[in-house]
From TrEMBL:
Recorded metabolic or biological pathway in which this protein acts: Amino-acid degradation; L-valine degradation
Protein name: 3-hydroxyisobutyrate dehydrogenase
Upper lineage: Eukaryota, Sar, Alveolata, Dinophyceae, Noctilucales
Signal sequence range: none
Entry similarity comment: Belongs to the HIBADH-related family. 3-hydroxyisobutyrate dehydrogenase subfamily.
Organism: Noctiluca scintillans
Length: 262
């Protein structure tokens, strides 16, 4: 790779770097990569995107990315969604590490902290092969501390991690109407926003790494409170002899209306 740069033009070098075909070790390459990263909103967003975690939320999200014209590389332990996305034009990878080696940005949607750590930090994980300048976006429901742990590990590879949990549920994922609550460096938010926009209609920068998860925790707390209150209201109405359908209709058009009642 280094010998190649003795004769290659700067535009060619840039193309090779974007495609991950040159491993940059020399000072000249480092300068070139720094230049590419400085204008990297376009380079990252237009480059190959990886997606790991294709469950009830991840599969429709990845499908919407494909519909937006992205070049998509996907991985999941379940072969069924992989084949569904292959039929739509995605390229299937054998591991998170394989995705890390080819993608300029990676989105994950995973079910637990244990699996999140395995996908990012494991011996065959994303960070074992990720290229410098890559943007990593974890859309899983997790914790601020986990996001900071991953961001610190990503920084050692020269990549940047954002936490971006979602609200909107399966229907929002299907219809590309999700809200993304994003935590991460402000100077990289534009690139993250461009990557997430094909999957949702609202992308909100909440602050530093971990603040996306903090926002979702607060939102979910309020949701639980309203769900509990709605259940108690119906229980009280039943004890007082109110018809449950009548009460539901009243609540849905009155001051007690909430997302849980809709």
């Amino acid at each position: 790779g280094q010998a190649l740069l003795g004769w290659a033009s700067a535009p060619l070098c840039a193309r090779l770097v974007r495609k991950g075909l040159v491993i940059m070790r020399s000072s000249r390459l480092s300068v070139l990569r720094g230049h590419l990263c400085a204008r990297s909103v376009g380079a990252v967003c237009d480059g190959p995107v990886g997606f790991v975690g294709l469950g009830n939320m991840g599969l429709p999200m990845a499908s919407n990315l494909l519909k937006s014209g992205r070049e998509l590389f996907v991985y999941d332990v379940n072969p069924t969604p992989l084949e569904a996305l292959r039929a739509q034009g995605a390229q299937v990878c054998a591991s998170p590490a394989e995705i890390g080696a080819v993608a300029r940005s990676v989105i994950t949607m995973l079910p637990s902290n244990e699996i999140i750590r395995q996908v990012y930090l494991g011996p065959d994980g994303l960070l074992s092969t990720i290229k410098e300048g890559t943007i990593l976006i974890d859309c899983s429901t997790s914790e601020p501390g986990v996001a900071r742990e991953l961001a610190d590990a990503a920084a050692k590879t020269g990549s940047r991690l954002f936490d971006a949990p979602v609200s909107g549920g399966y229907m929002g994922a299907e219809q590309a109407t999700l809200t993304f609550m994003v935590g991460g460096p402000e100077d990289g938010f534009q690139a993250a926003e461009e990557l997430l926009s094909p999957m949702g209609n609202r992308v909100v920068h909440c602050g530093d790494v971990g603040m996306g998860h903090a926002a979702k925790l607060c939102n979910n707390l309020l949701l639980v409170i309203t769900m509990t209150g709605l259940s108690e209201a119906h229980a009280l109405g039943g004890r007082l002899g109110l018809d449950q359908k009548t009460l539901a209709n009243i609540i849905s058009t009155s001051s007690g209306r909430c997302w849980s009642a809709d």
